[in-house]
Write a structure and sequence with these properties.
alpha+beta, two-stranded antiparallel ribbon, flat
Length: 75
């Protein structure tokens, strides 16, 4: 959430429930060894809205995340 806020990626219209869902994903990934929360569509993309939304997040392994880089890929 902090990184996304720095990128101005957290839209003002996110509800409390949506923020909670995002926080739960990050918490779940912390207890899974070698897994991260990944943006399905990168926040760094040039032609996409840079918004952090729960439906744009997934938990992936380190290997999957590195393989994907900044490309669109859903596992």
């Amino acid at each position: 959430m902090y990184r996304a806020s720095k990128l101005r990626a957290c839209p003002k219209w996110l509800t409390g429930d949506m923020k909670k869902e995002i926080e739960e994903l990050y918490e779940k990934s912390r207890v899974m060894e070698n897994h991260y929360v990944d943006h399905i569509i990168s926040l760094q993309g040039k032609n996409v809205p840079r918004h952090m939304k729960p439906w744009n997040l997934q938990i992936t392994s380190v290997t999957q995340n590195l393989r994907k880089s900044n490309k669109y890929d859903q596992y």
